[in-house]
Amino acid sequence: MSKQEGGRDSFTNKFGVIAAAAGSAIGLGNIWRFPYVAGENGGGAFLLLYLLFILAIGVPVMLSELLIGRKAQLNIFGAFRKLAPGSYWPLVGMMGVGAAFMILSFYAVVAGWTLEYTFYAIGNQFAGESPEGIKAIFDELTTASWRPVVFMLLFMALSAFIVRSGVQKGIERYTKILMPLLLVILLGLIFRSLSLDGAMAGVDFLFRPDFSKVDTNTILEALGQAFFSLSLGMGVMATYGSYIKKKESLGKTAISVSLTDTFIAILAGLAIFPAVFSFGLEPGQGPGLVFITLPGIFNQMAGGYYFAIFFFVLLVIAALTSSISLLEVVVAYFVEELKMKRSTATWLAAGVMSALGVVCALNGAVFDFFDRTSSNILLPLGGLLIVLFVGWFLGKQVVRDELEADGRAAFYFRLFVPVIRVLAPIAIALVFLNGLGLLRF
Ligand code: PHE
User: Fold this and answer.
1) Kind plus residue range of the DSSP H or E element containing 51
2) Cβ neighbours of residue 47 under 8 Å, at least 6 residues apart?
3) What angle do CA 286, 292, 297 make, to 5 degrees?
4) What are the residue ranges spanned by the domains of the chain?
5) Whose CA is nearest to atom 8 of ligand 1?
6) Is the domain 14-435 a CATH 1.10.4160.10 member?
7) With a 6 A CB cut-off, is 23 part of the ligand 1 pocket?
8) 247-261 per-position pLDDT tens digit
9) Contact at 8 Å (CB) between 66 and 241?
10) Phi (first) and psi of residue 440, to 5 degrees
């Protein structure tokens, strides 16, 4: 970590920036949420829509967010206040802070399951279990009254602990080494999954688009998943952008982070679906999908015992690098706008999120409501307002100067402007109208 001109902390170098932003993006969204939502929405056609949304909407929104943050050097609320004084724009920042509360509440529950799975793996409790047996363990784990709560709280405390001591130090140190390791284990899983009997049905499911399965909901879910997985629409990338030095290229950061994140999601799908079909499981069974499928693959692997432990530990860490980014949005806001001490801000935010998390852990309907509403509505709406702000309000020259602050010409500028002014807003609006049933296609 080093100090920036204004005395604000910043990431030490380009790798630090990308690692932190990728650390936020890569998480349970890729490994848990992508397979379960893709499974519910017919596989291949969903994947295609998801990829399209990442490129046409996700990358431009990410660039816009990074730009807002770095230009303003403030939290998401403060950034709008500074760049658009006396306007209603800061409300977009408020919405982001609200979304952070909502997301971390259910995210910590899933991370808690992951944490508990780590202990199960160490105790070798999945060994020899059939898929039905594993499902029974999962159902018991998620409905037992106190355990999901305890593990959720444990995870929240871990996140708060890291955020309290400053995000940059925490994130930079962990992500650099651990994310590549996660990739290696994922490759091992894919290898085993693909060699199971009947695995090809899963590959088909993921890569062969069946458009008869596409309905209004599929389109909205694909957009929501793109936003969720890239950590967009609620200020994470703006907050991290405020820690990026002027000499770094925002364009490169946005592209590398988006591509890496998407790559990991596809790998996760490639690890999960062949096994789902081989074990005769139902791809559309919901949030438990990955938790029921993975132990089955480990059971079939040479050295599966060790792989499983490694994998779940890494998944907890991947979840942590995402949860701290969510918490940081709120903490940066509390510290800079409400003038709280960093530690007070952290414990207050984590305390409120924990209370909401208890509700999510005990009530599946609330969990589901938080999960869908944040991804499918709040994040795309935030993204829509963010691109409109950068496209129409900030002024072309301001945008260009910020993109070129690293001293290099932003060759993509000519493309970027029409995309954030017109294409991305219209695309998001159409998906919304379609989702509300006001427009059918
Ligand atoms: N992108 C994170 C993941 O994939 C989740 C997240 C969503 C983080 C929104 C921050 C903001 O796990």
Assistant:
1) helix 44-53
2) 38, 206, 207, 209, 266, 269
3) 135
4) 14-435
5) 231
6) yes
7) no
8) 889 999 999 999 999
9) yes
10) -110, 130
